Amino acid sequence: MSTADRTPAWTALARHYDAEGRRFDLREAFAREPRRFDAYSLQAPEVFADLSKNLVDAQALRLLLDLARERDVEARRDAMFAGRPINTTEGRAVLHTALRAPRGAAPHGVEVHAVLDALLAYAEDVREGRTARRITDVVNIGIGGSDLGPRMAVQAFEAYRAPQLRFHFVSNVDGHDIAPVLAGLDAARTLFVVASKTFTTQETMANAAVARQWFTARAGAFGGSVAEHFVGVTTNLEAAAAFGVTRTFGFWDWVGGRYSLWSAIGLPIAIAIGAERFREFLAGAHAMDRHFATAPLAKNLPVLLGLIDVWYRGFHRYTSRCVAPYHQWLARLPAYLQQLEMESNGKSVDLDGRSLGYGTSPVIWGEPGTNGQHAYFQMLHQGTDVVPLEFIAVRHAAHDHPELHAKLLANCLAQGRALMLGKTSAAALGEKAPTAAPDIAPEVLAHHRTFPGNRPSTTFLLDALTPRTLGALIAMYEHRVFTAGAVWGIDSFDQWGVELGKALANELLPRLASGDVAGLDASTAGLLARLRE
Ligand code: F6P
Description:
alpha/beta, Rossmann fold, binds 6-O-phosphono-beta-D-fructofuranose
């Protein structure tokens, strides 16, 4: 297969971009197309998406859909669902969708449901206090995909969390992470979940060793054992046994780390919200899987999102995308999406090893609204770069302060509208500036108070933040990343880019002790010497 930019659709898109795309104006588009909101919005399972404030017209969409067909996105999608080894550089299938499929509906159903049943039964035991000693604190020790998903979801499900349980997440090899967590724990009431797909990750193994040492120093006093208070979640059952955990929940090499919160890696989520809710979480994701697998491309939400990402990155050349959840409990969603998208699609060679002549993953970043509005939204409104924004709003709040929720939603709508409409200098000139600026000419000040507008955004609406809706939302993001990766022709499921740093860290560790700088570059040698002073 040729690279994406050698396809007829890409050439047609480039032509369309030069002729119309670069001058596309949202304000004119809305004036021209009274039905634009209806035409460019979509109700997918649990997620309503308004795509109308994106810089696309009908022709761009048509050509992007042609591109998806020329890049065999559907065949690749079907190969993923069927369990073919589409992660070619690691020779693995990609089957996180099987983790949320009903019994008998996807490959590996027997193993998946056997582990799920056992996991949920154990989660209920912990939740209901049926363990040897009643647990009050659950500490997840893991990093990357073995941390970000459970951490994000446990926070998101605050409304469903067992109130008698506290959750802690230790990921960083920086002792400042684990030390304060341990300081607040009662060993007799604590469950440590050692979560690592490989059970070899330096950070996790080091933190798990610290936790085990801390625990064993205290366990004699109450007759506790590592076997009762440590659980392993891993594909490497042998290494977990060697570490000393006897209770392990397994998963498989066809579950990528950043796609693993649906597997046993979701144990803290299951303990937090219980078995029934966890199954709803899986069901929400499965509903989005069915939508992705069966909806025609032009009505397929993850496909449309992935194609707009390709349009922005390859033609508009936007280098980042901001995610602004207007829900405080989704505070960790941008961090979660960073791994999902940037570790998946941050690649510069295609499946055949050829260097790509187009951009792939943008930088994903963001904070909950309204906080971000008072920090970096200045740049989004008036900076020199265009950053497409993604708003996530939730219709029904889980608190009793409707006046706050109304303000939150008004802010969310206002930001999308302000980014699109902007403000001319004439309008700014007609206004009174809120602060007095005696020495500045009104025309100059008006210029500073001008907004270019025409800045694109997408808005997602959920009815409420529930296990089902969050499941669907995350699956939507997964399949969107898949779509863009398939168009770009890359392996979205490997992560070779993290290896070099790991290897060099292992090489530098003994040098920090010995001071040996032989063969190091001058900068690293100089820094190492200073750190040893
Ligand atoms: O360093 C990257 C990575 O391999 C991620 O892909 C993964 O989620 C994370 O490390 C943790 O890996 P493990 O679950 O094997 O400890």
